[in-house]
TrEMBL record:
Pfam family, one: Glyoxalase
Protein name per its UniProtKB record: Glyoxalase
UniProt-listed InterPro entries: Glyas_Bleomycin-R_OHBP_Dase, Glyas_Fos-R_dOase_dom, VOC_core
Signal peptide: none
Domain of life: Bacteria
UniProt cross-references to Gene3D superfamilies, sorted A to Z: 2,3-Dihydroxybiphenyl 1,2-Dioxygenase, domain 1
Domain VOC as annotated: residue spans: 6-132
């Protein structure tokens, strides 16, 4: 399929709008867009993510085994260039972020080899950021 690549949109629950602003805005460096008392838009590497106040809906608990790790089933994130991924991993480590899955190279030597890391936001939403040495391997089998 040769469709243009367009930004995605995802909305997710948070326990606190202020915590979301501190995490997504201050720590991850996502510029803030529109907002209201119960929601706030962020620009996550050109994609629109929206934190909605919904404390009873937060948290990620189910996992599936992938490359020997328990990957949170509910998660979102972005695919970055390798320099962006490395910079973010170092920034998160320096900030003392607890990783669900520490930064590492998954599927080493196989189709789809990728750098990946998983961590939680303050509301327990799982995020994955990954990078490919060869982006052409994004959907490789």
């Amino acid at each position: 399929m040769n469709a243009p690549i367009l930004p995605f949109h995802i909305a997710f629950p948070v326990n606190s709008i202020e915590e979301a602003r501190a995490f997504y805005g201050d720590l991850l460096g996502c510029p803030e867009g529109r907002s209201a008392p119960d929601w706030v838009d962020f620009n996550l590497y050109g994609h629109q993510i929206v934190a909605h106040l919904a404390p009873g809906e937060t948290g990620a608990t189910a996992t599936n085994a992938v490359d020997g790790h328990g990957v949170p089933v509910r998660h979102f994130g972005a695919i970055l260039t390798m320099p962006q991924w490395t910079e973010l991993a170092e920034k998160l480590k320096a900030a003392g972020v607890q990783f669900v899955i520490e930064p590492y190279i998954r599927f080493k030597g196989e189709p789809g080899e990728q750098a990946t890391m998983f961590f939680l936001d303050p509301s327990g939403n799982a995020l994955e950021f990954k990078s490919f040495a060869d982006l052409g391997m994004l959907f490789a089998k």
